[in-house]
């Protein structure tokens, strides 16, 4: 879409939204800014299938069900996904009840496997073998910087454990920009979740929804945004490349209610100009 020099060529406008009045912007982290956890779905999927099937062989139906579940819950806290896993384990009845773990037990198994590649990437980042640009969605850091320069209050909310989010955001050099706070997952879903953060932002600052922009690559945060009358910017990023459209993600974000869609933030200057234009 090209509406003049200030509109990004890759921007997909699903619906026209009020612009020029954003005071607060909430970001998801993984897949929106960071790609340190790229491939987490390829780890969670096999873990879930293994837990559901136990000693039995998986079926294509179970594999498809797990894939759909992960797609639909991208962006929620991991502990909530693990609670969903318990339901799937019981539904299929392949594992004796006394062998079914609680959500924290399943989360520990998943995290142990996920953190192997994550720690390896962080080590490469610290050694200089992996650059910050390679470890982030392209243009995401200049986009965050541009928002900060405009005096916008920035928040980071993630389904990843709080300490890990803070650590990884610090390693990427973006933690200091989030002057509104960094909100990672705590032990229970009720203690911290993205919708709770959005509602608190609106209540604390007496805002209208159009003054809050939510940026994320998962359907959960975009649904949370629309449920609270905020503007939803979907980031349909190809996390392997850190740039370009992920078409499956793009369709999921449209269904979740995205107002605007971008593949990445390479056109961050034009995107900022568009978002803050009053024309």
Describe it.
The protein has 2 domains: 164 residues, 3-Layer(aba) Sandwich (Rossmann fold), CATH 3.40.50.1000; 88 residues, no CATH class. Helices cover 45% and strands 12% of the residues. The protein contains 10 helices and 7 strands. It has a 7-stranded mixed beta sheet with strand order 1-7-6-5-2-3-4, sandwiched between helices.
The beta-strand count equals 7
Query: How big is the Rg?
Result: 19 Å
CATH T-level fold name of the largest domain: Rossmann fold
- Name the CATH superfamily classification of the largest domain: HAD superfamily/HAD-like
| Distance linking N and C termini | 16 Å
Count of domain modules: 2
Query: pLDDT under 50 segments (min length 5)?
Result: 1-5
Strand content: 5-15%
Q: How would the global form be characterised?
A: globular
Main sheet characteristics: 7 strands, mixed
Give me the CATH architecture of the largest domain, please: 3-Layer(aba) Sandwich
Provide the descriptors you would attach to this structure in a database record:
279 residues, alpha/beta, Rossmann fold, 10 helices, 45% helix, 12% strand, globular
Topology (elements, then pairings):
Elements: E1 12-13, E2 24-27, H1 40-53, H2 60-73, H3 78-92, H4 103-127, H5 140-149, E3 153-161, H6 162-171, E4 181-185, H7 194-205, E5 212-216, H8 219-227, E6 231-235, H9 247-255, E7 260-262, H10 268-275
Parallel strand pairs: 2-3, 2-5, 3-4, 5-6, 6-7
Antiparallel strand pairs: 1-7
